[in-house]
Amino acid sequence: QVQLVESGGGSVQSGGSLRLSCAASEYTYSRYCMAWFRQAPGKEREGVALIDRDGRTSYADSVKGRFTISHDNAKNTLYLQMNSLKPEDTAMYYCAAARAPVCRDVTYKYWGQGTQVTVSS
What is the pLDDT of residues 23-81, one digit of tens each? Predict the structure, then answer.
């Protein structure tokens, strides 16, 4: 089974940027649906962005135009570039993977341990 390790979280001021990384233990591009989720204290986990097996991306409305998901095939690494960060983006961010024929309404089986993002005003 694939193992996922996130990194890149930290504390930034509002308007700042961070890039999260998710290193996979095996080749994932074109084999797995890959996604970023986040969970803030007292809130439910929400999907932030996903990239399907053909490289197509989709985003939550709250991050459209500010976040970009991408994948480096050679490094088996998933990224989340986060720009124009807002205090409401503060959360634990997780990457996830699923092997599925289509990447809609997927149950993600593989999860990383999470990386904390804190945005101050």
Answer: 999 888 788 999 999 999 999 999 999 999 899 999 999 999 999 999 998 999 999 99
Tell me the C-alpha to C-alpha distance, in Å, between residue 1 and each of 4, 26, 27, 30, 55. 10, 9, 11, 16, 21
Alpha helices in the chain (DSSP H): none
Cα torsion angle, 27, 78, 21, 72, sign:
positive
Q: What span, in angstroms and rounded, lies between the C-alpha atoms of 57 and 103?
A: 10
User: 81 has which bridge partners?
Assistant: 19, 68
Query: What is the Cα–Cα distance from 57 to 46, expressed in whole angstroms?
Result: 16
Tokens linked to 106 = 């997927």
